[in-house]
Amino acid sequence: MIRSTSPSSPPNRSRRRGPLGVLTAAAAAPLVLSACGTGVTADQEAGGGSGETVSVTNCGRELSFDAAPGSIVGMMPSQTELLVRLGAADSLSGQAQTDVSALPDDVAERTADVPVLSTDAPPAREDLLAAAPDLVVSPTEYEFTAEQGFASIEQLKDNGAQAYVATGGCLDRRSSAEVTDVLTDIENLGAILRQEDTAAELSADAEARLSDVESALDGVDRLSVAQVFVDGNSLQAIGAGIEADIIAQAGGDNVFDPDAPEFADFFAAEISPEEIISRDPEAIVFSVSDADSEKKTRDYLEETFPDVPAVEEGRLIAVQKSHLFPGTLGNIDAVEQISQELYPDAF
User: Fold this and answer.
1) Are strands 252-254 and 223-231 parallel, antiparallel or unpaired?
2) Which of 18, 238, 338, 342 could form a disulfide with 227 if both were Cys (CB 3.0 to 4.6 A apart)?
């Protein structure tokens, strides 16, 4: 039995509402950079001043920057890392949800003195506003849910800050997000930060890594894969969104159809164990937050599905939950990891 998961309790807490975020070009733009079918516009202002005004459209909202932001908050370690990779380490005035995942050592060294605004949840409204950011970068729109006590996008705007949400985390994009959406974020943020060259290098590296995986998998017989999220006794299937695209990019054949009615409104759906058994996957991919959660989930899968090929053949693939968040370089890491564990002889 498959039952659609309520948008109020998804695996990564994102909810569906609002329009698809894309980039648009301003009317008199002398310079337009494009990627993934979208564009960044930089307008040269008359009279000099700060030089260029960079405008992007994000989650249906237009953001404009007359100068590179000087006070930035990363709302998740994955976003903090991306900002550092894009050359914004010295502009960070806060980092949030720091216990969700560990930063790479080189990034952790550069952010050691950046104030921590929260550890395991988005920062409270007053804590985020006290950091006086002019740019807040987030993986999803959940981090701006006023009902949860977080600063809303409008409240940030009233305090002089703009919010950039990962393209794949825009609520109306969440179920159709793709791994390559991170390339749009790299381009957008690179333009906003005035780090276009750094962004181009980072994007080229990401594209090359994905291309290497694609080349390695040329001609392989695709294995069937079930992607699940386990929380206690709750079992959810991942059938759409960036998570499903990661499986596709890694060469897996998802046993859950993104076009099925269960995934029409959301990328995850609650399932019974019988659904997994009936689909007989050759591999199971599951997300974890730490070694303890990996052990518990692995034990559950082995005990619940002993006769499924994924268990019999030892293809239970644990992926860091943070690698599945929209707008993170971890998406590329996940593609590489899953493909290598599915097809070790291809690498």
Assistant:
1) parallel
2) 238
Q: What secondary structure does DSSP assign to 100-114, as a single string?
A: SSPPPHHHHHHTTTS
Residues 233-253 pLDDT 10s: 789 999 989 999 999 999 999
CA angle 316, 261, 240 (to 5 degrees): 40
SS3 287: strand
The Cα 78–Cα 139 span in angstroms is 8
Distance CA 239, CA 308 (A): 19
Amino acid in the structure at residue 29: A
Task: Delineate the domains of the chain, giving CATH numbers in brackets.
Answer: 2-9+221-346 (3.40.50.1980), 65-211 (3.40.50.1980)
Enclosing H/E stretch for 290: none
Q: Which residues contact 52 (CB under 8 A, 6 or more apart)?
A: 42, 43, 44, 45, 194
Q: At what angle do helices 181-192 and 196-216 cross, to 10 degrees?
A: 170
Q: Interior CA angle at 267 toward 151 and 104, to 5°?
A: 60
